[in-house]
């Protein structure tokens, strides 16, 4: 009996489910049909908008290419030096003579040309090639296109309804010898743009504009002339695009306003696009869609029944996936029923403190709190209270928990209330536990290193300043400064932090250090600023700076006070300069004295030379020769002193005179033969045959060199002989 009742209930449930599915499918079918219809309508509108953009771009491109650039090039073929001269002299017949034949030839080859005018700079018409009888009228006062060209003296282009025709006008200013002489106007039928746009876009089109409330039409209806019969051409101010469904024709009308140079509406281009194929495609697609919806509904009916059977299986898989995510995140989970006090911890949560789940189950709140370090209990309770009072949406607390082996680990607890009572009291709470011991130890290590760096910063002997760039390197603001720097500069940290370096130290730019700051900030490369003098109203000192950039963009400058060192160097340089001046004075004195001594010595040598040539006794002659040779030797010593003095003062020069080698050797023999005899050593000269007798050079310097060589040779030779 019970079994039959259960069976009936199951059948009723299946019937109800089938009815529900059928209703859902029916509603879905109507919804899809409506959406499809709406989509197709929007698609047609989107197609028309895209085509409008395409037509607009095509229109502007063809207007610029075929109505402006092309005819501006045509104008160049008319303009010549003779034409400009005729315009300047206002010689109408000469202008006609130079241009009429070209105009007729051009008109024959280009039927789109409608008008061609020449206008004097006084505002009057010089010549109208399309109507030779039209000239002399004051067009500048009547037509804005002409008056604007005269005023701005630049090329002006635009649509215009003239007295004779509606056309696109290009007015080009003419200059002769740098003076404005008038303008050249060429008008082109707008049908040229119409023909190009309709041809390249496979459209039909017309141009309509008002002339005394009558419509004048240009048209190009090669695709479907029927549109012109059924389209409301007489309608004014079309939308940019409109869809027309009339007399079995389905098409779009695109409108492009024609404005004159002043922005006034004077007409419009209308383009027709045949959408009949799109409409037929829409009807075919609608039929197919109904067919597809019918069979899809049948298939979907059975699919939904199958999905119901997979639903419970999907929930199980989702639970399994969630468990995998939690395990991969290496966190434990917990759930707390606040009404019963029961707390359920995952295996991962209890493993963090070194236990197995079965070893400490069941776990109460008090039991779990016993593992928390006493100093962290209050923090955890405060975070819970904020969450219960809705002051904070989430519970979050870091605390130390005692591991089974006795040491403490850092655990980050997070959670939120997942169920509230109608009175606003928390009923259930859930969250996670994560072991963050490694992160906390790293944080403590970072703090320790920061303290060490701070000690180094404050106690280093060199000055160190950290700057923050202001306005992308326009200036630099004091961020930090160490004690050594404050002592050097005589400032206090609280007085300069947050201020610009150019304000606190106004001489930093003259010193050149500010440019180094900017360069290092821009390039990121460190740079040394050599010893430089800093000077302002408060400080005058020498500094050497090394500047580099941190990864956060801040600039660091380390420097030393080298004022005392610089002053010592300057004192040493001054002493050196004085010593050099004294040495120079000594050398100049020796040079002068040597010169004064050499004058009488030359007299002695000269007189002794005269005595040698006189008839003297052998003993007297020998004594005179010795006097002569000794005098010459003394003169050589004096010359050496003089040369040394000249070298010191930088005035030594070599002579270039002819002298005899035998004379030099004779003097040397007289000077050293007696010394060699006294030391009982041989002394002789050996001259090879190929050596010439005469030379050009400094005889005195050669004698000095050989004298020094022979003197040393005899001095250090104790037996044997000396030979030169």
- Low-confidence spans: pLDDT under 50, at least 5 residues? 1-10
Strand content: 15-25%
Mean pLDDT: 78
Quaternary organisation of the protein chains: single chain
Arrangement of strands in the largest sheet: 2-1-5-4-3
Determine the structural class based on helices, strands and strand pairing.
alpha+beta
Briefly, what is this?
With 724 residues, the chain is an alpha+beta fold. It has 21 helices and 24 strands.
Annotate the secondary structure layout:
Elements: H1 2-78, H2 81-89, H3 92-109, E1 113-120, E2 125-128, H4 144-152, E3 156-161, E4 166-176, E5 179-188, H5 191-201, E6 204-211, E7 214-220, H6 226-230, E8 241-246, E9 249-259, E10 265-274, H7 276-328, E11 331-337, E12 343-345, H8 347-351, H9 357-360, H10 365-369, H11 374-388, E13 395-402, E14 408-420, E15 426-435, H12 437-459, E16 463-470, E17 475-481, H13 483-489, H14 493-496, H15 501-504, H16 508-511, H17 513-523, E18 527-535, E19 540-549, E20 555-561, H18 563-612, H19 618-649, E21 657-660, H20 661-678, E22 682-684, E23 694-697, H21 699-715, E24 721-723
Parallel strand pairs: 22-24
Antiparallel strand pairs: 1-2, 1-5, 3-4, 4-5, 6-7, 6-10, 8-9, 9-10, 11-12, 11-15, 13-14, 14-15, 16-17, 16-20, 18-19, 19-20, 21-23
Helix pairs in contact: 1-5, 1-7, 2-3, 18-19, 20-21
């Amino acid at each position: 009996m019970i079994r039959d009742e259960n069976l009936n209930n199951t059948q009723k449930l299946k019937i109800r489910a089938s009815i529900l599915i059928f209703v859902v499918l029916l509603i879905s079918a109507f919804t899809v049909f409506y959406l499809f219809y709406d989509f197709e309508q929007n698609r047609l509108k989107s197609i028309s908008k895209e085509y409008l953009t395409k037509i607009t771009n095509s229109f502007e491109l063809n207007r610029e290419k075929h109505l402006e650039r092309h005819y501006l090039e045509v104008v160049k073929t008319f303009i010549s030096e003779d034409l400009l001269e005729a315009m300047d002299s206002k010689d109408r017949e000469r202008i006609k003579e130079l241009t009429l034949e070209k105009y007729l030839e051009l008109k024959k080859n280009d039927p789109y040309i409608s008008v061609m005018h020449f206008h004097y700079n006084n505002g009057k018409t010089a010549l109208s090639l399309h109507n030779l009888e039209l000239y002399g009228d004051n067009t500048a006062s009547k037509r804005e296109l002409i008056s604007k060209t005269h005023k701005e003296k630049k090329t002006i282009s635009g649509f215009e309804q003239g007295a004779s025709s509606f056309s696109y006008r290009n007015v080009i200013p003419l200059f002769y010898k740098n003076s404005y002489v008038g303008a050249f106007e060429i008008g082109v039928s707008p049908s040229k743009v119409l023909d190009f746009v309709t041809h390249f876009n496979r459209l039909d089109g017309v141009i309509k504009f008002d002339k005394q409330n009558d419509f004048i039409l240009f048209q190009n209806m090669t695709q479907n002339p029927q549109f012109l019969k059924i389209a409301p051409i007489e309608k004014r101010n079309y939308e940019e695009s409109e869809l027309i469904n009339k007399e079995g024709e389905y098409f779009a009308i695109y409108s492009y306003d024609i404005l004159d140079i002043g922005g006034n509406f004077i007409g419009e281009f209308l383009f027709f696009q045949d959408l009949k194929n799109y409409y037929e495609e829409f009807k075919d697609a609608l039929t197919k869609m109904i067919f597809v919806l019918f069979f899809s509904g049948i298939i979907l009916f059975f699919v939904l029944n199958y999905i119901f059977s997979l639903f419970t299986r999907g929930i199980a898989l989702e639970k399994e996936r969630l468990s995998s995510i939690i395990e991969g995140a290496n966190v434990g989970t917990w759930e707390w029923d606040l009404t019963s006090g029961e707390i359920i911890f995952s295996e991962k949560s209890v493993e963090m403190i070194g236990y197995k789940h079965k070893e400490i189950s069941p776990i109460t709140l008090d039991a779990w709190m016993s593992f928390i370090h006493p100093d962290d209990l209050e923090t955890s309770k405060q975070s819970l209270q904020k969450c219960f009072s809705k002051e904070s949406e989430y519970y979050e607390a870091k605390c130390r928990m005692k591991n089974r082996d006795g040491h403490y680990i850092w655990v980050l607890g997070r959670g939120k209330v997942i169920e509230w009572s109608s009175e606003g009291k928390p009923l259930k709470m859930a969250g996670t536990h994560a072991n963050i011991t490694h992160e906390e130890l790293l944080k403590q290590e970072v703090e320790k290193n920061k303290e060490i760096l701070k000690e180094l910063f404050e106690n280093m002997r060199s000055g160190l300043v950290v700057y923050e760039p202001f306005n992308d390197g326009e200036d630099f603001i004091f961020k930090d400064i160490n004690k050594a720097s404050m002592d050097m500069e005589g400032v206090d940290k609280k007085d300069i932090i947050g201020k610009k370096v150019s304000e606190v130290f106004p001489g930093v730019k003259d010193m050149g250090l500010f440019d180094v700051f900017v360069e290092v900030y821009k390039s990121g490369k460190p740079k040394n600023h050599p010893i430089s003098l800093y000077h302002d109203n408060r400080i005058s000192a020498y500094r050497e700076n090394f500047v580099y950039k941190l990864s956060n963009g801040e600039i660091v400058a380390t420097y030393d006070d080298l004022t005392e060192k610089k002053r010592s160097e300057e004192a040493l340089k001054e002493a050196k300069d004085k010593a050099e001046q004294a040495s120079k004075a000594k050398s100049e004195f020796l040079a002068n004295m040597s010169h004064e001594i050499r004058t009488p010595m030359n007299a002695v040598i000269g007189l002794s030379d005269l005595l040698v040539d006189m008839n003297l006794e052998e003993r007297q002659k020998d004594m005179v020769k010795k006097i002569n040779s000794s005098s010459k030797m003394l003169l050589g010593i004096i010359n050496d002193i003089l040369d040394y003095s000249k070298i010191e003062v930088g005035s030594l020069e070599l002579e270039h005179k002819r002298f005899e080698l035998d004379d030099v050797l004779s003097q040397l023999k007289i000077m050293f033969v007696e010394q060699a005899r006294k030391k009982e050593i041989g002394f002789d000269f050996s001259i090879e045959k190929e050596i010439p007798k005469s030379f050009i050079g400094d005889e005195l310097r050669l004698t000095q060199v050989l004298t020094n060589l022979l003197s040393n040779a005899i001095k250090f030779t104790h037996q044997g002989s000396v030979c030169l």
